[in-house]
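Suppose you are handed a protein chain with no further information: no name, no annotation, nothing but its sequence. What can you learn? This example shows the usual starting point.
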Amino acid sequence: METTTNRGAATYASRRQMFQTRHRSVFPVDTDDLYIVYSYGYHWPIYVYDKATGQWFGNRSKYSVTTTRHLSDVKPAPHHEITWLTVEQVVGLVDSGGFANFAATKMRRKA
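A reasonable first move is to predict its three-dimensional structure. Written in structure tokens, the prediction is:
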């Protein structure tokens, strides 16, 4: 696995490739359905790529100056459209295994 700077991680994230940062503070997880980039732990996903929809989702919630910097440093290339969600929504999307399951769960709750 390639080691890179936090800013260099954006290239890997854009391509949905595995990487590790020098300080291990930002890291990706690649599952069958999702590519997820975390800041400092599994409690704070900053970007999620849903493979079924081809859509990027970003965490718009604030946590610390450092996680905000990670969000900026690792942002997928500008040509990727990002749907911004709260941390609770991003965690829900990850826990559901993708946007379709997340949306279906939300719809069932409202019915």
